[in-house]
Sequence to fold (714 residues):
Amino acid sequence: MSKYFIDRPIFAWVVSLGIVLAGLISLKAIPLEQYPEIAPPTVEITATYPGASAKAVEEAVTTLIEREMNGAPGLAYTSASSSANMAQISVVFEQGTDVNIAGVEVQNRLKAVEARLPEQVRRNGIIIEKASSNFAMIIALTSEDGSWNEVQLGELSSSTLLQSLRRVPGVGKVQMFGTESAIRIWPDPAKLAAAGLTANDLSSVLRIYSARVIVGAIGSQEVPDTAPISANIASESPYTTPESFESIPLRANPDGSSIRIKDVARVELGAAETSTASKLNGKPASGLAIKLAPGSNILDTTDLVRASLEESKKLFPKGVIYEVPVDSSEFVRISVEGVVHTLIEAIVLVFIVMYLFMQNFRATIIPALVVPVALLGTLAALLALGYSINVLTMFGMVLAIGILVDDAIVVVENVERIMREEKLSPYHATIKAMSQISGAIIGITVVLIAVFIPMAFFGGVVGNVYRQFSMTLTISIAFSAFLALTLTPALCATLLKPVDEEHHHKTGFFGWFNRTFDSITHHYTHRIDLIVHKPLRWAIAYGLIAVITVLLFLRLPSSFIPEEDQGSFMVMINKPQGSPLAETMKSLGEVQKHLLEKEPIRYVYVVGGWSFFGSGTNTGIMFTKLKHWDERKDKDHSVYGIIERTSKMFAGRDDFSVFVLNQPPLPGLGNSTGFDFRLQDRANIGTQKFSEARNQLLGMANQDKNIGFAYFSG
Fold:
């Protein structure tokens, strides 16, 4: 095969240029992300049951839906949380399951159980969404001068931003932290009882008066042909202000008088939801948290989101601005750019080292030309396989550079040796060199592929993480062998010139380098000769090194993916059960003040009444964004130092518990570092005893030196 390309160098160039062109096209089309798609397909179900307690939601909604989901094809597990007014169920499927088919399966099973759910749940609608578990971005709408309160900001974000963000490609779910405005009616139980009315009577009347009624039509078949136009006639609802709702009659008395809402209740314009509150750096705010759709590209999606925000910004009233206190794409972009810089540096260093040893520009340029061709060919193959450019594939390319160069150097060195020793022309030297080493190139390629290819067949999350890394190395090595048998010999036959015996006997820097390297080589071979003549002693030394290596391997801490300073972290607090939201916000404000005054923090976005532990007026969460990495190069200003100091600062408090958590290293696998598991009451021991068992387990876990801290996340 090599002789065919040696005799046809233009054809070799054409093939290589075709590979380069395919790679350049792929470079524009291939997705860019931090890690491959790792999280299993998940479908989230959200049901609203107004006025119900957490226990009522669990019994009437959550349990029914969970039972119906059992047995779904490809189902891995379900997890659910029940809080006042709301049930959230996550249906997680096995790796490899098509998330769209999973969504259809969930929808069908939900239809089967829908008739058994409470009427209020059915009326409010059950939301099914396919989205990742963690937030890619959080946008906060706030007022610079403080003239807008939280309800007004919530109404503005709902009308201006919410729907436009939901339409952005790649967005799976937009969760609102805040509230819209609504008419709130506060019945007086004593006045209702005196009037012989109930809360249900009040709700029924409001439902009737809020309905929009179609009165009739003009110009349709039911009216005379002489009608001048065709139009529907609808009765406009006059009930848009508190005063108009106050005037709604509840009952007509026999004497002609009537009982109106204002007689038995107080009506006001206020917040639709009062169970949550949010602030940005201490100012009222309304937040929109974005979760990505399965398979979406975080960099492309966040760019589109920011473009949408800039477009919507034109509609904001004076004094209202948006900030982005959480943006996971920033760290992803920096991570990928760092690996790209490493890749470029590796190519430059390889070129310098090759020229230092070969001391021949023509011989050096040949491997330097082969490397980018092989890497671009690898990109084309990755796109064809549906993979992406990520930290792991780029890392595979960095490791592959040495192998790519090695194949080309073997060919060039052998051709130069034959030209020097046998005085052959470059063409004939190349033909002879390839007849000697073609089998060796193919053999070493097969061996290397056999080493890396098994990782591509790993299952589960580990397989998802390392499959693309393995395939990147395998494809790069295969391209390296192909080019070593085609392009490299064609270049050698056309670019190289005969080498004389005095080529390596130079003066100046290269002369000093050659003499120094020859001296080091001489000393090395002399030492090897001594080792060979005393095999037992060195075999013992080798055994000791092997034992030390095994001991170090067993003692060094291990992890799946190491934690990193991603420029942000989370703080969650829990107060005693029954604590009002105002007290929770006060405690959150205390932690927020400490972070803004004592630590290099840019944003602190606070949400009261909600956290990853669950919903309730006694819980809250803070999303913090640190200053740029260039502004906090000191080790104490890293995310690890800040987390450690903050944890110590608020440890042992009696009024609330603080949990400071780093961002998860792998997006989609949980909302923080560490691991979580579920404790099941299979013996049906009851809620109280089950809670006692849980607390006992947490106490034992916190005494384990290998666990930083364990907490209840429900």
